[in-house]
Amino acid sequence: MSALLVLNGPNLNLLGQRQPEVYGHTTLAEIEALCAATADKLGATTSCLQSNHEGTLIDAIHDARGKFDGIILNAGAYTHTSIALMDAISSAEVPMVEVHLSNIHAREEFRHTSHISRVAIGQICGFGPHGYVLAIKAMLEHLKAQT
Ligand code: CA2
User: Fold this and answer.
1) pLDDT tens-digit map of 41-85
2) CATH topology for 2-146?
3) Are 119 and 91 spatial neighbours (Cβ–Cβ below 8 Å)?
């Protein structure tokens, strides 16, 4: 049974509570429940963590080594700024799928660059909360293909 870590970065704890016109009405708790239900249907498990702190996300990625088979990561705005998160993913050697609620390529220019894409299996963006379902499915297919 594959164990997945679902990591969410800064400000995503505000989902459903502020700026619904940009990020929708679904709360982070609902997204985490959706991830758990999706994984369960597909014979996998999820553990979820959200942090507004870069170091906490990095520690979680380091700790994932040997404990999780894959990481689903929405790094929020750290996507566009953090070489440290990219390095953490490389060093952990745990496969990662990058997910974003919004289509970052259709937004401001500064959101078009993702440092973590360099170390991701792939990126899913623009599908709202359903992106997490797609990311879990893609990760499980990837892991199956490795065995
Ligand atoms: O589209 C995504 O999932 C993002 O990772 C969300 C980040 C943004 O910086 C990325 O460019 C794309 C921002 C998350 C902020 O979430 C909020 C939710 C509700 C209210 C305010 C912010």
Assistant:
1) 999 999 999 999 999 999 999 999 999 999 999 999 999 999 999
2) Rossmann fold (3.40.50)
3) no
Q: Which residue minimizes the CA distance to atom 5 of ligand 1? A: 76
Pairwise CA distance, residues 110 & 57, whole Å: 21
| Centre of ligand 1 from the C-alpha of residue 145, in Å | 31
CA distances to 7, 80, 127 from 102, in Å: 16, 14, 7
- The Å distance, Cα 63 to ligand 1 centre, comes to 25
121-133 pLDDT, tens digit per residue, is: 999 999 999 999 9
| Buried b / exposed e along 91-111 (16+ C-beta atoms within 10 A) | ebebbbbbbbbbebeeeeeeb
User: Is 123 within 8 Å of 114 (Cβ atoms)?
Assistant: yes
CB 98 within 8 A of CB 118: no
Give the C-alpha separation, 92 to 22, whole Å: 32
